[in-house]
TrEMBL record:
Residues 1-187 form the BPL/LPL catalytic domain. Its EC number is 6.3.4.15. This is Bifunctional ligase/repressor BirA. Belongs to the biotin--protein ligase family. The lineage of its organism: Bacteria, Bacillati, Bacillota, Bacilli, Bacillales. It catalyses: biotin + L-lysyl-[protein] + ATP = N(6)-biotinyl-L-lysyl-[protein] + AMP + diphosphate + H(+). GO terms for molecular function: biotin--[biotin carboxyl-carrier protein] ligase activity. The keyword Transcription applies. The chain holds residues 70 to 322 of 325 of the full protein. It comes from Ammoniphilus resinae. Biotin binds at residues 45, 116.
């Protein structure tokens, strides 16, 4: 792979013209013993998966559909931190290669002008309280010119933002390089440098949010993330709620 500066991530790259889901393939390879840093990329996915069991629109030629296998020797509770780390790597790569000032919506949606440019799906395989492996799936709309009608109002692409086609390979390289750099920083210094970077790129903190969770919804002020990578929301009665997983929206008030 010429031009890729990352040493560990992308040492092994599996490329597919068409696939069901790079996420499935990554699990399969991980179970077969694939090393830390294995990357799976497809031009098209027939069964792209999003968060919360949703489908992910992955047509040919227009996006980055990529899964990265990590094998961190870390306890389970640190998994959300790695998800946030991935969002920082991607948002920085977008800015550095295209100048588009994308923002992170907690935990790891990447938006421009409130429309979704990129989604990240982290899947975990763990034994008791240790991470066995982690798969970070990145889906980025790069050269999409037009979305299906149900996505038109909520999705955007780099091409729509920049006005001209955007090359995918330099962007993929930069994502992998940033991820490798941030991962090293994280292993050496822990979550706090990542937390600051995440907060600097986030559009959620300091805003009123509505959280849709499995068992109902909750409204409050997003006041920050804690050392574990959990979102902290202050409810109107003053109680602070820790939010591990939910869909959030900005409150209309
Ligand atoms: C989200 O719901 O926001 C997450 C979307 C993640 C999509 C990516 S595309 C590459 C990888 N393979 C999949 O099937 N899903 C992820």
């Amino acid at each position: 792979q010429t031009g890729l500066q990352a040493k560990e991530l992308g040492r092994e790259i599996h490329y597919f013209g068409a696939i069901d889901s790079t996420q499935h393939k990554a699990h399969e390879l991980a179970k077969g013993g694939a090393p830390h840093g294995t990357v799976i990329i497809a031009d098209q996915q027939a069964g792209g998966k999003g968060r919360m069991g949703r489908p992910w629109h992955s047509p040919a030629g227009t996006g980055i559909w990529m899964s990265i296998l990590l094998r961190p020797e870390l306890p389970l509770y640190r998994c959300p931190q790695l998800t946030l780390l991935a969002a920082v790597a991607v948002v920085q790569a977008i800015r550095e290669t295209t100048g588009v000032r994308a923002e992170i919506k907690w935990p790891n949606d990447i938006l421009v002008e409130q429309k979704k440019l990129c989604g990240i799906l982290t899947e975990l395989n763990a034994e008791t309280d240790q991470i066995n492996y982690l798969i970070i799936g990145i889906g980025m709309n790069v050269n999409t010119e037009d979305f299906p009608s149900e996505l038109r109002d909520i999705a955007t692409s780099l091409r729509i933002q920049v006005g001209t086609p955007v090359k995918r390979i330099p962007l993929i390289q930069r994502i992998l390089e940033n991820l490798e750099k941030l991962y090293k920083l994280y292993i050496e210094y822990g979550f706090s440098p990542i937390k600051s970077l995440w907060e600097a790129h986030a559009n959620t903190i300091g805003k009123r949010v509505v959280l849709r969770q499995l068992h109902g919804s909750l409204e409050g002020l997003a006041i920050g993330i804690n050392e574990e990578g959990t979102l902290l929301v202050r409810k109107d009665n003053g109680e602070i709620e820790k939010v591990y997983s939910a869909d959030i929206e900005n409150a209309s008030s």
